[in-house]
Write a structure and sequence with these properties.
Keywords: Zinc. This protein has 231 residues and is α/β, with parallel strands linked by helices. 41% of the residues lie in helices and 20% in strands. Helix 3 runs antiparallel to helix 6, helix 4 crosses helix 5 and helix 6 packs across helix 8.
Length: 231
């Protein structure tokens, strides 16, 4: 484990992954999710949208169901069989009362001890801007958590993490690397249109290689998370 990152908490049984679009879990969290489900933990995916505007040249009515199917297939590869889509508009996700209410309802219904959400900062690195959907969704998750913690602290999860560049905690994922690659590659149509000149498997391997790169001189692959809230 990196000397600068704390071990991710282990005293939990149900985790809730909250993201904006299909493929969001796979770009950064899939390896950690595969480890957790392999340890017998329950992980639920909840997605604000169906990603219906995410494939160039495909109309939303066709794209949405396709991307939902790819997300479900991807989730199964890492041991997740509970996936829900909320129907908020792709490319139009905003931190609204309706979105915050849906987040709160889902947290109360699933009763997770830990939430994993999207990075909400403006840039991943200098010159690498974040998406507006991601920033708005992250803000909604934080606001919903804060409201819940204030009104019903017994229901608020113990931890809320974001998967982003300013990690505070890490999960070792050497053994889950190949599973994470297969999980991202399950978004076959999306990735094949995103970069038609690179095989999907190569795109997936390169992304997971970056997302799980060893840190601070450690030889071990890790998935990093930033602790945003705890109680």
């Amino acid at each position: 484990m990196s000397t600068n990152l704390l071990p991710f908490p282990t005293d939990w049984q149900t985790g809730l992954v909250l993201v904006a679009h299909p493929d969001d879990p796979e770009y950064g969290m899939a390896a950690a999710v595969a480890r957790w489900t392999g340890e017998g933990r329950r992980v639920v995916y909840a997605l604000a949208s169906s990603g219906e505007r995410g494939i160039e040249g495909m109309i939303p009515a066709e794209c949405g169901p396709l991307r939902e199917a790819e997300q479900r297939a991807s989730a199964r590869i890492v041991g997740v069989d509970e996936v829900e889509f909320w129907g908020f508009p792709d490319s139009g996700i905003r931190n609204t009362p309706e979105l915050r209410a849906k987040i709160t309802e889902t947290v109360e219904r699933i009763a997770p001890q830990v939430i994993l959400s999207l990075y909400g900062g403006p840039e991943w690195a200098p010159g690498q801007p974040n998406q507006r959907d991601h920033m708005e969704f992250s803000a909604a998750v934080l606001d919903a958590y804060d409201q819940l913690a204030a009104s019903r602290p017994d229901v608020a999860p113990f931890w809320l993490f974001e998967n982003g560049p300013a990690a505070t905690h890490a999960v070792e994922v050497d053994d889950q690397f190949e599973t994470a690659v297969r999980s991202l590659a399950a978004h076959d149509r999306y990735l094949s249109v995103l970069d038609p000149n690179t095989p999907v498997s190569d795109q997936a391997r390169a992304q997971i290689d970056r997302a799980t790169a060893p840190r601070d001189g450690s030889p071990r692959r890790v998935t990093g998370f930033e602790l945003k809230r705890s109680r």
